[in-house]
Amino acid sequence: MLRSLGGLWALHSLGGLWGLFLLSSTAATKVCPRPVGIPGAQYKPEKLVYEPGNVVVYSCLPGLLRQGGYNWATCSSAGVWIPATLLCARRQCAPPDPLENGNITYADKFQSVAHFSCKEGFVLIGANSSACNESGKWNESLPTCQPLTCPPPPVPAFAQLSDYRPNERNVSGYQDTVRYECQAHYAMFGNDTATCTASGNWSHVPECHDVSCDRPPDIQNGFLSFSPHGKYRYQETVTYGCKPGYVLEGPRVSSCERNGDWSARPQCRAPCRVNIKKATVLYNGRKTNVEDIAHGTIQHGDTLTYFCKDSKGKCAHLTDSHCQDGVFTVPACYKEPKWLWSTEPSKLPVCSDAS
Ligand SMILES: *[C@@H]1O[C@H](CO)[C@@H](O)[C@H](O)[C@H]1NC(C)=O
Ligand SMILES: *[C@@H]1O[C@H](CO)[C@@H](O)[C@H](O)[C@H]1NC(C)=O
Ligand SMILES: *[C@@H]1O[C@H](CO)[C@@H](O)[C@H](O)[C@H]1NC(C)=O
Ligand SMILES: *[C@@H]1O[C@H](CO)[C@@H](O)[C@H](O)[C@H]1NC(C)=O
Ligand SMILES: *[C@@H]1O[C@H](CO)[C@@H](O)[C@H](O)[C@H]1NC(C)=O
Ligand SMILES: *[C@@H]1O[C@H](CO)[C@@H](O)[C@H](O)[C@H]1NC(C)=O
Ligand SMILES: *[C@@H]1O[C@H](CO)[C@@H](O)[C@H](O)[C@H]1NC(C)=O
Question: Which residue segments constitute the domains of the chain, with CATH numbers given?
């Protein structure tokens, strides 16, 4: 190498401006011009002039293949290139067989590199690309696309599989599903169904948690069934009841929910005293004397329909009043008959809407 560099080696050792001067004055006559191009190839480095001993390296353009020859040229001390003999040519590999359940694409128009992919639900076994090499052969063998499988699904703590049907090789196929159940009194968080995904794993595996509820609150004028222990577990229930005469509003049964709360808080609604002695009303669809209503009380939600005389005393309007949690008000339009001989309003004809 030193020999081919000739005087240049000496110049470098002098260094500095003096060296630069020597370079331009003594080497000027010996430089090489740009090297000749080779079809289908490029070279590096690219410069305007090359000094004796400089080397350029040729490479085939993308998509072209080296068919042989030397790929480097040297600038001789005489200022002449010792040329490269590189030969570049298009691909010469036979197209690969079609990929079953997959697809072959090419990186360039010369089809020198093939890329392999599989359709959804299949996994590529083998190389994902292959290059056409100098001997006209694909350097990697054709891969295959195999149906995707998921291993047996994970079973989270306190859970069990309720609907799991693996194939004979104990694996599941793409988009197969499995269902989970939590053990008794464990609450599920997440979706009960997991799916075998395109990544070969299971999506949405739920969790099962131990859930408990505190003792449910007492209700006024009522009672509830207690369990002997103070704690209740998920889905355990209590049953509410009311003192006689009181009406339960809301569900009778309340259950411990996943959030640790109770599903229902019913209430006991009070009965009402009917405070006007003399009246004939409609009660449960029958004309009833108020005095005959048992104990003079009606239950929450019950309705009494009063007969209100109209201003001329010729007919009666029907007016409802409801018992609402112990509160009952006789309709303002109702007047107790003042005289023994007054016509009892319930005996009058019912007023038509127009009057
Ligand atoms: C294969 O890939 C090409 C290019 O992306 C596309 O046009 C073609 O539809 C694909 N074929 C299949 C079967 O996926
Ligand atoms: C092909 O495989 C290589 C190495 O296994 C990987 O780095 C590359 O991302 C893959 N290419 C594609 C398109 O999957
Ligand atoms: C095939 O060619 C590619 C691209 O040149 C290279 O990355 C890969 O390692 C080669 N494979 C083999 C088996 O030589
Ligand atoms: C081209 O690839 C084939 C198959 O991998 C291999 O047998 C052959 O040696 C390769 N040729 C060159 C020049 O790398
Ligand atoms: C499949 O898995 C179950 C449970 O893990 C095991 O009992 C059974 O032997 C397995 N069957 C095969 C064919 O591997
Ligand atoms: C569980 O997931 C499936 C699919 O993603 C969905 O159809 C279903 O409605 C989900 N069920 C619940 C309870 O969220
Ligand atoms: C499934 O695998 C993919 C890719 O490895 C990953 O990104 C994803 O988080 C995994 N999903 C689950 C539920 O493990």
Answer: 29-90 (2.10.70.10), 102-147 (2.10.70.10), 149-210 (2.10.70.10), 212-269 (2.10.70.10), 272-347 (2.10.70.10)
